[in-house]
Amino acid sequence: MLRGQPELHWTVNELARLAGMSRTSFTARFRAVMGEPPIGYLTRLRLSRAAGYLSTTTKNVRHVARLAGYENEASFSKAFSRAYGRPPGAYRRDRFTAPTLGAPIAPGLVADAARPPAPGS
Hints:
Blueprint: H1 12-19, H2 23-34, H3 38-56, H4 61-67, H5 73-84, H6 88-96, H7 109-114
Helix pairs in contact: 1-2, 3-5
């Protein structure tokens, strides 16, 4: 559900209802299986998707925020900055800046760029 449409306005109550469980049981089961609460997982999923849009498209930050499920650009920017250590615009600039000819590429740079932040980091 969440992976397929993370941009929708999900609530724990709605997710629990769709799973046929109580809110408490759903949250406990989700945390046991996924290692984090449902809304934390959803936030990480949305921000990872947004990072992908910022890295691969020229859509403006407001559009990326909406595509990722945020109604408000300011709340998106705040959440993105908290997760990635810099605002969306700076993240995009870093991703679109190509190394100059002859400049060495740091080891692990390519692999690290695609890796979403781990929970709690």
